[in-house]
Amino acid sequence: MKAKYNAIFSALIALGLTACSGSDSPSSNTQQTLSLAGDWQVKLDPQNTGVSEKWAQNGFDGQKITLPGTLDDAKLGTKSTMKPEINNDVMAHLNREYEYIGAAWYQKDVTIPEDWKGDTVALELERVIWESEVFVDGKSVGTRNSLVASHNYDLTSFLSPGKHRITVRIDNGDKFPGINITSDKYPRESSQQMAHSYTNHTQIKWNGMLGDINLTASSANMADDVQVYPSLANNSITVTFEQKAPAPGNVAYTISKPDGTLVAEGEAKNAEVKNGKVTFTIAKPDGVTLWDEFNPNVYQLAVNPTNSGTDTSATATFGFREISEASGDLLLNGQRIFLRGNLDAAIFPLTGHPPMEKQGWLEILKQAKAYGLNHFRFHSWAPPAAAFEAADEVGFYYQIELPHWSLHVGADEATTNFLRAEGQRIIDEYGNHPSFIMMAMGNELEGDLDTLRSLVNDYKAQDSRHLYASTAFSFQKPSEQWPLDVDDFYITQWTKKGWVRGQGIFNTNAPSFDKDYTENAEYIDIPLVSHEIGQYSVYPDMSEIPKYTGVLKPLNFIAIKEQLEQKGLIDLADEFTYSSGKLAAILYKEEIERALKTPSFDGFQLLQLQDFPGQGTALVGLLNAFWGSKGVISAEEFREFNSELVPLIRYSKAVYESGETFEASIEVANFFKDLKSQTLHWSVTDNTGTVVAQNDISNVDLTIGNNVALGNISLALDVKEARQMTVRVALDGTNYKNTWSFWVYPQEVTTQSGAVVSTTSFDEAEAALKQGKTVFLNPDYNGLAGTDGRFVPVFWSPVHFPNQPSTMGLLMDPKHPALAAFPTSSHTDWQWWDMTIKSKSIEVDESQVTPIIRVIDNFVTNRHLANVVEAKVGNGKLVFSSIDLTNDLQHRPAARQLKHSLLKYMQSDAFAPEKTVTIDVLKSLQTANEQKSFKTNDIYD
After folding, report:
1. What is the distance, to the nearest Å, from the Cα of residue 155 to the centroid of all Cα atoms in its chain?
2. How far apart (Å, rounded) are the C-alpha atoms in residues 1 and 84?
3. I need a surface site. Which of 66, 141, 280, 343 has the fewest CB within 10 A?
4. Pairing of strands 323-326, 876-881
5. Residue 37: burial class (beta carbons within 10 Å; 0-12, 13-18, 19+)
6. Strands ordered across the beta sheet of 723-731
7. Please, how many CA atoms are within 13 Å of residue 615, restricted to the half-sphere of its CB?
8. Using one digit for the tens of pLDDT, what is the confidence trace for 345-403?
9. Are the C-beta atoms of 811 and 827 separated by less than 8 Å?
10. To the nearest whole number, what is the mean pLDDT of the chain?
């Protein structure tokens, strides 16, 4: 039987075909695989008594469980009694319906075939958290610890043909405390483990076995661990593999496409043994072409060493590509690339664990590519093989990280040794995949820098197929020490010269669209990628609640919904989501465009396109945690400013006055391919849809990189009424286009009226209202009780970072007659910047006043907040504004125009407030409350 089996596989090798079991990782063509998937028995051992080893010897009557799977899937463990309440526990993250931390024993009887006699027999447990121990017929084989790679066991001396009992003890408890962040603010006992390889904030701390659970028999001297090293400089391919008895000799090889099409075959003469591995180099066959995001050419290389006299072939998947850096530029195959990245933080809201099949990852990558992304950073974890296979196939770039987020790097020797081994396992198991281009030692690490240097140098010395960095950003001072001398690339949110992301800029600097990060970035002489840009919170989408049909329950969402119902705000929930999401999208657009405008930048990593349901319910996504749309922005719209080729313009501000000239310069960020003799078309339309100017720029050559000063837009602005203008630039004959807005206001408008008493004084307002007059009351916002005005929404999470003015933008009806002379959307846009900064968000009683301009509160407090309200006061009528619409209006055109619009409304028949408030209630707003300062890095205080 075995002779027939080997003959079949020898024939497949001759045809360039391979037979792998389960994945594209190296496997032998003479292998026979026995899947252990299916029914097992499981018994929990929460006290970890040790006497449970008797279960491995004698068997046990446990509960039935289907593997691959988890205890959560089987509804085993402690059932949650948590209720949907707005508190730190509920709002921390999604709730596990069942939870178990500790040892669990899994047992299954197997029958080993007779023809496995004399073979090497291995057990693979593809993914486990965190420690496994295997017993065969009661005898311990050994233990394995890994969060990133398969737990593999050699069972050759334990399994003879016939019946055997296999027992696996899995302990998902914390094995190396130095893996996770520790500080006085987040002590260990509070369970604030946040490295995404081991946390309940993203993937859960599941107990079970996922992916392949296989016994594999193979010939004794089979080839194993095939590694492929392309060299563009030498136009060659170097191959290494392991054998139990490696020896020099000849090696037959084939290279084929995934569909089995033979590309090349031959025999490498005089393969050598180096460092215990068989090594040979061949010239790159003509049929092997480069791999990148546009040409994801993947191949399988099969080797069959002839030194053993039997068929001992094995295969590996590879792509012919080379990642490098030169003069500070990130290069793939010698050409500049730009990483349009997103964090993958192990967020899987149905299962609590990553997909283990390629199709699951293909679905994620399809959505990511639809939104213009070409890169994932795997924040403090490494995905399974299926994720790499999918990325190889579609052309996607990965940054992998050790399972590590610590403020005390190097303090614990056992942890350091474990991490060093984890990195080795990552390289060995996933190193062939062309999608794997970068590797960092963890997230935001602090501690002993020599430990980080040592880790980086170890990996660089043995595997040049990836670029390496000591950390994905660090808060550790002084900032001048970063990047380290061993780093191949640098991920950061600031340099020693200042910010390189908008979170530290957009609320303090007036809107300008002619800026980039060159001043703070160009001195960096290695590739520079901006760290975790965005983090703009979006109001929870209540329609998401029914989607949680798996092991995690959205008690946080349910608690928010119940509070909205209690406070009479539930009918506005969808509008809160949409308007806060629109503001976030506007900010993400400017974040991305500034990065694209910076010639010394090599990419950005969003935090993030989809929601992060942990760390205090950080709903920072324009998509939900399922990668589904929130209805805020389409993939097509997002791709306008986030793709391989993006038209860009630079202009100085968002708000103009009639009589000024709008000036913009046109450029294109091109990371696609060289394009000759192109035509760019630009146009400017107003909010009525009328085209007020347009032109073509012909004979444009677009090279790879930043193509600047391609043409100018100059438009004299002459308006009698306020206008929102839209600029559009498109590359003719393509789908590449982009749009921007600016606003133009007339200089001469009425901001005073004899029919309306306009005052900053409560006393003056009271006297006028008692006389039945119409009053516009605009007191000094600094003296009002309320929340300090901000343009940007909540940073990350109001639970995780409570020390911030936690509002989420404006909400208004663009068709409200009070806004008839002030063009606006229902959400905050750049023309509101000055007014939101000079404001207080006041809490109102909607039984007494009607908001005209509402402020969306954060989803923890859910207050009725507003900036502008109307009401009756006695016989008088009132509009109250907590936005400064009084001071310096000659230099604040948007504020001037809004006041003009409000006064016009107040003099019209449409102004008929229905609700009544007392002057005493208004006066109660005068008690200023203390505001806390806010820092985006206060997690490390």
Report:
1. 40
2. 61
3. 66
4. unpaired
5. middle
6. 655-657, 737-745, 723-731, 675-685, 691-702
7. 22
8. 999 999 999 999 999 999 999 999 999 999 999 999 999 999 999 999 999 999 999 99
9. yes
10. 92
Q: What is the largest CA-CA distance in the chain?
A: 109
For 174-209, the DSSP string reads -S-GGGS---SSS-GGGT----TTS-SSSS----EE
Q: Which two tokens stand for residue 465?
A: 């197929």
Q: What is the pLDDT of residues 548-583, one digit of tens each?
A: 999 999 999 999 999 999 999 999 999 999 999 999
The answer to whether 120 touches 156, Cβ cutoff 8 Å, is yes
Structure tokens at 384: 């399974």
Element housing 566 (H / E)? helix 555-566
- Going 322 to 324 to 330 to 333, the CA torsion angle's sign is negative
pLDDT digits (tens, 9 = 90+) for 399-426: 999 999 999 999 999 999 999 999 999 9
Q: How far apart are CA 684 and CA 98, in angstroms?
A: 57
Residue 928: predicted pLDDT: 52
CA distances in angstroms from 480 to 493, 496, 497, 538, listed in the order given: 13, 6, 9, 34
Nearest to 768 by CA among 899, 874, 917: 874
Six token digits for residue 140: 């311990």
E strand or H helix at 675? strand 675-685
Query: How many other β-carbons are positioned within 10 Å of the β-carbon of residue 629?
Result: 16
User: What sign does the CA torsion over 668, 672, 678, 680 have?
Assistant: negative
* Closest residue by Cα to residue 199 from 92, 126, 97: 92
Distance between CA atoms of residues 556 and 800, nearest Å: 14
Contact between residue 862 and residue 568 where contact means Cβ atoms under 8 Å apart:
no
For residue 38, what are the β-bridge partners? 67
If you average pLDDT over residues 869-883, what whole number do you get? 97
Q: Which helix (H) or strand (E) holds 280?
A: strand 277-283
With 0.85 as the threshold, say if the pTM is over it. Answer: yes
Mean pLDDT (whole number) for 93-101: 96
Min mean pLDDT across 176-185, 188-197, 453-462, 805-814 is at 188-197
Q: DSSP characters for 758-769?
A: EES-HHHHHHHH
Peptide bond into 554 cis (omega under 30): no
pLDDT at 26 over 70: no
Q: Categorize the per-residue pLDDT at 50 as very low, low, confident or very high, splitting at 50, 70 and 90.
A: low
